[in-house]
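Format notes (please read before filing issues)

Several people have asked whether sequences and structure tokens are stored in separate files. They are not. Every record keeps both together, in the order shown below: the sequence lines, then the token lines. Line labels are part of the format and must not be stripped during preprocessing.
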Amino acid sequence: MCGICGGIAITDKGRAMLDRLPAAVQSLENRGPDGRGIFREGDTGLGHTRLAVIDTSEAAAQPFTSSDGRYTIVFNGEIFNYRELRSELENAGEIFRTQSDTEVLLRLYVLQGKKALKKLNGFFAFAIRDNTVRSLFIARDRYGEKPLYYSRNEDGIFFASEIKGLLSFGIEKELNNAVLFAYLQLNYVPSGPTTMLRNVNKLLPGWWMEIRPNHAMETGPWHLLHEKQEPFTGNYEAACGNLFRLAEDAVRLRLVSDVPLGVFLSGGIDSSVIAALAAKQVQKLHTFSIGFPGTPHFDETPHARLVAKHIGSEHTVFPISEKDILDNLFETLDYTDEPFADSSALAVNLLSKKTRGHVTVALSGDGADELFAGYNKHRAEYLARNGGFRNTLIKNGQALWNLLPASRNSKSGNRIRQLRRFAEGLRLSPEERYWRWAGYATEHDAQMLAGDLSKAESGEYQKHRNEILALLKRGDGLNDVLLADMTLVLPGDMLVKVDRMSMCHGLEVRPPFLDHRIVNFVMQLPAEYKIDAREQKKILKSTFRNLLPAEIFARRKQGFEVPLHRWLTGELRGLADELLDEKRIREQAIFKPEAVKQLRAQLKSASPGDSAARTWGLIVFQYWWKKYFAG
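Then the structure lines:
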């Protein structure tokens, strides 16, 4: 795991921008604290910060150039099947001078070009320069686990693992209002080629980019998640057997490391399955979790300890308090280059920081919720499609639910909040319901806060929204919902959260459930293998039930929640007052002061609903704006 950056200058101004390559490399030092390297030839430059995980010797340092001097690579990520690929290449007569996956990747590309991408089992973003032809090839992994941003103008083409790397080259900043409009609904920047900055783009998951000597740029997909899979033809028991074998091998591959390695173990099903499979292959496996002493609603450590004892791991619990999270709040806000208001990032940041004190690599259970229908909204969607008379009662009772206090702060208030959302969703088409349940606010809410988009901005917003919602029209029921989550939520929210918070501390996190063999197989399965009237993650539980204590399968899903409402009306009220000050809002001229005031008033009311999450989204944006535009 590392940080990469670079560029190709076109004009004198572009060459001056490229001269800032050392600053761009330095800006990515958290991603790679073990070394830095720069390659510069003519109008092209490549930069790298190294987190040494496989072959930690200096011989494997990057930028890495082939023996004949023709090709140079900078690479962020890991190729987990590199040993198998290396063996194939050696049998064909290839000779290697390191033990690194970097050299295997480079050699495979030299021999096979784009076709090499299909053979890679891993997560990655890399750039390879042909020093003879003077072209540049860039690619990103299938699901967007590793980030890659780029910017092109008349002066040059630049790329980096993080936006801060691009800005180090002197890229101009302009707010993208279409993306802001989506952010105000979702609390994160949605997946897609656009970012919160108008002239900064993302290379899409599963896509490549090629820049030719004449500076012509071409992009295209090498892996399309939405391509229909042939349906699985075996029975349920056969599917369980296949899933077990695939998961076991995915974990085996991700245990390859030349540095200390462990597993995140929350006590939930997903991380517990990964830990149990890893414990079968590693003696004295180290597992890690965070605990919230004195707050049982948030504290999962009893379940994590139960699993650790069952599988025989050496378990470490990091007890943290709300004060610990608040003390690290600005570290979390500062490291993310775009507004990112998933509040669970605050806890993931602390888990990553403390785990890094023990190991350099950690396995996680990320991706299972999207694959196996693990979210509450998946249960709600199942009921919306199969609820019958009960749905009619709930829908007809919407006027009553709207009169009752809705809040995340109590069990009864949260139930009313959920009933409101469910009743509202029942009145929408499956496509519109998906978009509503994906976020905290409606399009009307966003419009009330930020005003109308221009015609061009509205077209840009609608285009990406419609591309996501088109996935729900494929005729595969709840599987279409899961595909939309794999396309929107996973790369836009969950993987961004884990990558940024782990890389802030130089920790590599590997999610075995996102092994492409598992993803491909699970997408072949009928939805009823994943969710039915009684159970979510059905096949995951069936497959691994014998590996874990029965109590783990009986508990409700619990995420890394934080008490936002209490903080925003207490400890963080000063921050809210500063960043949402009416004078500041008017001078900024992005949000409507009256709408901000109304949102804050709802936060203090007896029925706050989702106003805490929405207010937090505004605060995160304002903090980002102050740093990047008003600084």
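For reference, the curators noted about this record: Residues 563-631 form one domain. The mean pLDDT is 94.
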